[in-house]
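ligand=fe (iii) ion
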Amino acid sequence: MAESGTLHDAFIDELRDTYDAEKQLTKALPKLAKAASNPKLRQAFESHLEETQGQIARLEQVFESLDEKARGKHCDGIAGIIEEGKSIMEEDFDETTMDACLIAAGQRAEHYEMAAYGTLIAWSEAMGHTEATRLLQQNLNEEKAADKKLSSLAEGGINQSAAEGAHPEEEELVGAASGAKRGSAKAGRR
Ligand code: ZN
Ligand code: FE
Ligand code: FE
């Protein structure tokens, strides 16, 4: 590489990392969609999968605008986040709790991507790569919207319905003697 050790090289490196992260996500998102019970949540993962395919195409345009070959470099960060998501899916949670957990896993991925695009945009802008900046900004906007969508599903009912089943012992107690101290139900939980 001609200009090794420059910010431009670091930029290309981060682009390769992000390109790989997006590709890993195209394999993970269908699993999240499949595990979701809430149809709106499943739909959100499915439509973000489509967006992610568009983001990969956009990153290819970014590489092209910089006269670089589009190639990925294994992203350990997103691999770890995906791994954690897989562990969650193996848990034996009730349906809405699982949905809440899938949202949590999805949002970890979105925030990771937002951090990556934030840096890429700032560097691209600083180096005057106008076309790259414009394309990267489009990807960032989609990640932000996906994150907001997940928040709105969580806060628009999924968390609440999961919370309703969260303390079954307590409900029994409240049923048996209304006005029982809430703390007493906690004794039996880990
Ligand atoms: Zn540059
Ligand atoms: Fe993405
Ligand atoms: Fe995303």
